Amino acid sequence: MDAFQAAELGVLQHLQVSFYHWDKVMLFLSRASDPRNSFLWYFPVAFCLSRAVGLKVIWVAIAAEWCNAIMKWLLHGDRPYWWVHETKFYTAEDRPEVDQFELTCETGPGSPSGHAMVTTAVFFVMMSELASHIQLRNRSQANDIRDRERFIGRLPWLLLVFMTTGVCISRVYIATHFPHQVVLGAATGIVLGEIFVRLRLESLSFGRYIFFSAFFFLSIYGQYAFLCGLNFDPMWSLKLAMQWCAEKTWLNLDTMLFYAVARDVGALAFIGLAEALPLTVPDRVGQYPLKLATAVLCLVYAQGIESIALPRDNLYVFYVLGACKYGLVSLGVVIIKFVLFKIFSPKVKNG
């Protein structure tokens, strides 16, 4: 495995040397693919345009993060920025140098890539729904227009390919992942996206939401306890990150697996609460100005909640508050859409 990862490290070094002036673009792509953006950007926009699509987006994001957490502890993957120092494959004389960036020092295990998995899964759902919408429009068009619409219908899939490729390259470039880790993450994301795009989630009960919230939490905690029972330290990666990160200020507790799980549990439980309350408004064809205005307001609200700094003195308090924070984002999006559509949506007359 060391020889294989050494070869992959050569790919990483080639990217850093060949595209050294693209560092800002790579950091932008890495930020854009942060799994938290599924809750702060993609879910609010998707939910305001279509409740059904919005629910699929948040469910597939949570399922992808859960799968990612399970797989990370099972696969025990190193990250390039610490592996290059820890491996005995190199001697002191030939040990290569790897550049680090402000987003390099993630603290969890490296395989598979959560950024690649979650972003690919979420974009697969959104692009699939967009392609289906274009296809439905295409059926009612004349033949000369239909050819153009058929080309437009391929654009969502091209966007998915470009986005996934860009995310994978950026994660390798900043030395956060080896190439095989981003490929595994993207492939798993496609599988999850294919599963969730076929599901209908609008009629799930509040009890189902609570059940899955509890399941996600207990399964991760159970795996943690099991590993501890085997005298294996589940926090091994945090120690390596703290040891080999070039700048200690680049370490971020938000990248820990338990924080991601807390975020998922909070978002799922609160969206379940919102679905249980009489806060559903029908998604009618059109109404795009109202939908877009609602999406903008929801994005402002989500970014406002995200800007609230959480105390980090106590990890348990940090996790609980993180769950509440992202729960308030999902609940707030539902409430904002309900209120604005009740006020501004034209009333449908009977008869």
List the SSEs and their pairings.
Elements: H1 2-18, H2 23-32, H3 37-49, H4 51-75, H5 80-86, H6 114-138, H7 143-173, H8 179-196, H9 206-229, H10 236-244, H11 257-276, H12 288-306, H13 315-344
Strand content: under 5%
Structural class: mainly alpha
Major sheet details: none
- The general outline is globular
Summarize the structure.
This protein has 13 helices and no strands. It is mainly α. The longest helix has 31 residues, at 143-173.
Structure description:
The protein has helices at residues 2-18, 23-32, 37-49, 51-75, 80-86, 114-138, 143-173, 179-196, 206-229, 236-244, 257-276, 288-306, 315-344. With 351 residues, it is mainly α. The chain is globular and about 75 Å long. The mean pLDDT is 91.
Keywords, separated by commas or semicolons:
351 residues; mainly alpha; 71% helix; globular
